[in-house]
Amino acid sequence: MSTPEKKDAQELFEPGYYIPGHAGRKLLIILCGILLVLFGISQMRTPLRLLFTGGKARAEAASVIKTKPGLPDVILTNDLDIRARQETRDRSYTFWNEFRFQDSGGREFVVRAEVGSKLKPLYPIVDEDGLPTSLPVHYDPRHPETVSFPTIFSTWFAPGALVIIGLGFILIGSFLFYWAGKPIELPHIPAPLDASTAHGPPGAT
Q1: Enclosing domain of residue 35
Q2: Burial environment of residue 131 by CB neighbours within 10 A (0 to 12, 13 to 18, 19 or more)
Q3: Cβ neighbours of residue 76 under 8 Å, at least 6 residues apart?
Q4: What is residue 117's DSSP assignment?
Q5: Residue 107 within any structural domain of the chain
Q6: Are 37 and 173 a contacting pair, CB within 8 Å?
Q7: Helices 154-178 + 23-53 axis angle, to 10
């Protein structure tokens, strides 16, 4: 004799219901999303900290350093040399902009932007007005050599993209996990008519 629980289970698993399952795999999607978010935030930790608590100054372009693994660095101090040393195809070189700024105590520091560029530098030494290229810089008052350039797009792009992708993983994984153990009623699809009876009984018009 069947119990009410067995009867409910039989009705639940009758054709017309679908349970997605695989809850563990969907939890794994959520976990991957959390890890991506945490990694992206860790990459933005220093820029965010300096943005809200660091000292602020204006930094002027000092030089461009052209680097390649296994070769000595090339220091470029004017735009003519930079244009002559640009790479049109070889992406194994990296160009790093270096900037000079003074902290609140008047001490001068030369720092390298945290983001480099392939083929050519992100910024020239001199801007279109003939003045040294300048950018806002945020620095750690205790360690002024620790800096962040908030207006450099690449400072935020890659970490921000990781955070957004991770949030997408969490959202999708949470939705899938929520429905993993829930029965989903399938739409009723009527059985196809037999060809011999598709037009009704013989003699019907």
Answers
A1: 21-53+158-182
A2: exposed
A3: 63, 64, 65, 66, 82, 85, 125
A4: B
A5: yes
A6: no
A7: 150
Answer whether residue 204 is part of any domain.
Answer: no
Q: Tell me how far apart the alpha carbons of residues 149 and 115 are, in angstroms, rounded to a whole number.
A: 9
Asked whether residue 194 carries a pLDDT value surpassing 90, the answer given is: no
CB-count burial class (<10 Å; 0-12, 13-18, 19+) for 34: middle
Instruction: Give pLDDT, residue 186.
Output: 73
109 plus 133 within the same structural domain? yes
Give pTM, 2 decimals. Answer: 0.70
Same domain? For 81 and 135 the reply is yes
Do the domain assignments include residue 90?
yes
| Helix segments in the chain, DSSP class H | 4-12, 23-53, 79-85, 154-178
Q: Which residues contact 132 (CB under 8 A, 6 or more apart)?
A: 60, 61, 125, 126
Domain count of the fold of the chain: 2
What does the pLDDT look like over 5-27, one tens digit per residue? 555 544 554 557 777 778 888 89
Q: Are residues 65 and 134 in the same domain?
A: yes
85: number of Cβ within 10 Å: 15
Domain presence at residue 116: yes
Would residue 70 be called left, alpha or beta, if left means φ above 0 and alpha means ψ between -120 and 50 degrees? left
